[in-house]
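During the second year of the project, the team shifted from modelling isolated chains to modelling whole assemblies. The rationale, set out in the original proposal, was that interfaces cannot be judged from single-chain predictions alone. As a representative example for this report, we include one of the complexes processed in the last quarter. Its constituent sequences, exactly as entered into the pipeline, are reproduced here:
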Amino acid sequence: MTPEIGHYALVLALLLAAAQALFGLLGPVLAQQRYVQAVPFAVAGQFVFTVLAMACLVNAFVQMDFSVRYVAENANSALPLFFRVAAVWGAHEGSLLLWILVLSVWTVAVTLRSRALPQRFMARVLGIMGLLSVGFLIFTLATSNPFLRLDPAAPDGRDLNPVLQDFALAIHPPMLYTGYVGLSVAFAFACAAMIEGQLDQAWARWTRPWTTLAWAFLTAGIALGSWWAYYELGWGGFWFWDPVENASFMPWLVATALIHSLAVTDKRGLFKSWTLLLAITGFSLSLLGTFLVRSGVLVSVHSFAADPARGIFILAFLVIVIGGALTLYAWRAPLLRSNAGFELTSRESFLLFNNILLVIAAAVIFGGTMAPMISDALGQGALSVGPQYFNPSFLVPALPLLALVSVGMHASWKRGNLSRTQRPVLATLVLAVALALAVWLGAYGTGSLMLPVGLGLGVWIILSSLVDPIDRLRRGLSLSAGVLGMSVAHIGLGLLTLGIAVVQTASIERDSALVVGQRAQLGAYSFRFDGVEPAEGANFNATQAKVTVQRDGADVAVLQPQKRNYWVQRNAMTEAAIKTQWNQDLFVAMGEDVGKGAWSLRMQVRPLIQFVWFGAIIMMLGGIIAGLDRRYRQLKPIAEQEPNTVGIAAEARTA
Amino acid sequence: MIARRRRLVLVLGIVAGVAVAGGLALQAFRSNVTFFFDPTQVAAGEVKPGQRFRLGGMVKEGSLIRQAGELEVRFAVTDFKREVPVVYRNVLPDLFREGAGVVAHGRMQADGSFLADEVLAKHDEKYMPPEVARSLKKGETRSGM
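Output from the structure prediction step:
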């Protein structure tokens, strides 16, 4: 019975989403106050029924109702409870339902937090979000209904793909989707502002916290996915330029640009139409990410779903949403000109460079990700684009971007007066160069030049991010959450940078066939193979190897990688063993029995790889701190406080 | 006037920067894209000497050879008309097996074998790389004619 309840709840959610869209968009146009007031009720109703639908699906998984096709395809009676819940979003249908639920949660949050915003404007924002919800609900009900029955019911399920049976991957989709869908808030704010034909600094202030929080979740989602690929897929690295990774990275880059551009719109009333364009692009890339991953267009380990009919629907949806928003932009953006000046070395300039470089980076990745599809569609042959393209092309915008962070962070608004902040910038630079050289020569010896360059940039960013907060604390000034969040996020970026620089240049990897007792030498570490033994888990049995890692004759770690055989899906699966130390990871994955008592083993030493994810988590924290700044929670519309707060805007208008 | 000139410099600088980045990206793209070939195309000499490419097809049944205790493996990739011998010196992926689809990255060697530096077999039993599927289907219709 519950699957049917879930199904009907989805239909009701669709009707309420339609009401939300209709009342929200028509209310202000027809000047019908009753319509406008009805919107929050539609939002609440949609939320209730979406939650109900999700609860029904979770229940079907927990109860192992194998008469539901989706459950039978993605769970099994031997699957542990935690993974049965996670299996809800382990495949296409359930992840769409999750998408809809997350959108509903964001919509409710916007409704609750923004009661003080002009009602007409809010109605429009919620109307746009309702439209998005309508699209996804129709898509789910028409092509990807998770509640369809299987007749006769399956005796047991086919089980969740073993690579998905993992903690990080269980929480990766909700995080990533919270980020993806969170960008819809900025998108809806942008569309509403364009419909109104009015965009002021108050608008930027309303939009900023939502965008920053969405960005923080997106950061965490990408980091979790990357961490998972590292230890679960046994590939041993943190980033592979896989199309699905790129699909989440592109909206992240644009969202990063958007956060910075919104800061300028908020503080100076500039970059208005550019900010709008970024808001549209960021969410469009999120939709594209969903499309790329879920339509099976791309060939990748992640593309578990393959159904072109769905692809065509999403493509049509993409065209309507992106095309509609861009049309609106072409029509309305010229109304939103801002005409203030700023000097070449002012903070506005540096934020402009930041935006340009981030957009270039996104474009470079977009080109490389789409090229195989385009070439294929044009019959130009099947080509593939790999790290050989992405690594150097990404560095071209990324290096100047990182180099400008420290200078830009200390530049003043409007005036190009760099000499005032020359001292901290230069002092931190000198210190960073010295530290980078010392670490480079001391710990890693000579190697690629990218190592000291990346190290130096990372350390410089960290040091110069500390200057402002320390200076304020020492002078007894208050430190706003906004400034603190920015500093924390930039420190995270610095950690990430130096992590990537070191792990990319100083890693050692070796594949060897070893017999019991034989060693392989990786730098200062020797890996000794001590044999294999059988092992068993909840729903698999395995062969487990024992590898002892030594340095200078002393044991450092005992690693026990496994080769697992899951009972239901019968796939062999490698479970790598990783010893994490603060400054490096020791990694072993099993290959196979190659005869004569020897096993093939993949062994790696990866210095500072944990800094990559640690840095990303710090960035996320920074985003959350900044997004929760009290400044954004002033519920009064800015227009009412005009005389004392928008002095700069007035100045800007007259300039 | 000065403001306008400064803005002009800024815009020109940005355009130049974008152009340089675009040019470098295109250059990197041109020299680093790898194309897909099936064994028939390899036999027909469509691959330029020394070119890095992706070889796709099925692992021929009974072709997997390994010296006991050695890492190096040899196998043949076939599209059921032609086959290419492959040499690989690293750990094979989990789903690699005879009779299953495979894609190998690498170069042809002077002795006519393909030296792979990466071998991919995807995480799905039913999965077949689309290029491989297409290339095999093409083979079927051709042989059917």
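Residues 1-33 of chain B form one domain. Helices of chain B lie at 2-32, 39-43, 130-144.
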